[in-house]
Amino acid sequence: MVRCKFKCTSKSVSSDGTASISMEPVYCGSKENEEFFKYTPCGSFHFGTINEEAAKRFEEGKEYYIDRTQRTQKNRPPVFSKRTVPLCSPKEPSP
Questions:
Q1: Is residue 75 part of a domain?
Q2: For residue 40, with 0-12 CB atoms within 10 Å meaning exposed, 13-18 middle and 19 or more buried, which class applies?
Q3: Entry pTM
Q4: Does a structural domain hold residue 88?
Q5: Domain for residue 24, yes or no?
Q6: What pLDDT digit, counting tens, does each position of 38-61 carry?
Q7: Per the structure, how many domains does the chain have?
Q8: Is residue 57 a part of any domain in this protein?
Q9: What is the mean pLDDT of residues 11-34?
């Protein structure tokens, strides 16, 4: 797993409920941010979602960890807890 730390730089929600969220790497404000900046000095993360509950979890100006795990054949779709709101619904692969 690779962990990045990004700050939400913009969030817009359209009248049909779709949301567009943009994030950039952190670079200052704390010792932790300075440490993350050493390894992720530039980049961007932009996504859209139709899941209103997921969109509510992002606020402009707030910082978020983004965890990345490579998908392999042995990985199973994630199991979401009540605290986790998926951006999309994972589907089990067909047998």
A1: no
A2: middle
A3: 0.71
A4: no
A5: yes
A6: 888 889 999 999 998 899 999 999
A7: 1
A8: yes
A9: 94
58: buried, middle or exposed (CB in 10 Å: 19+, 13-18, 0-12)?
Answer: middle
The domain containing residue 44 runs over which residues? 2-68
With CA atoms as reference, report the closest residue to 66 among 91, 39, 90, 89. Answer: 39
Most confident of 5-14, 61-70, 75-84: 5-14
Residue 65 CA to residue 80 CA, distance in Å, equals 17
- Structure tokens belonging to residue 91: 């589907």
Q: What tokens were used for 84?
A: 């986790």
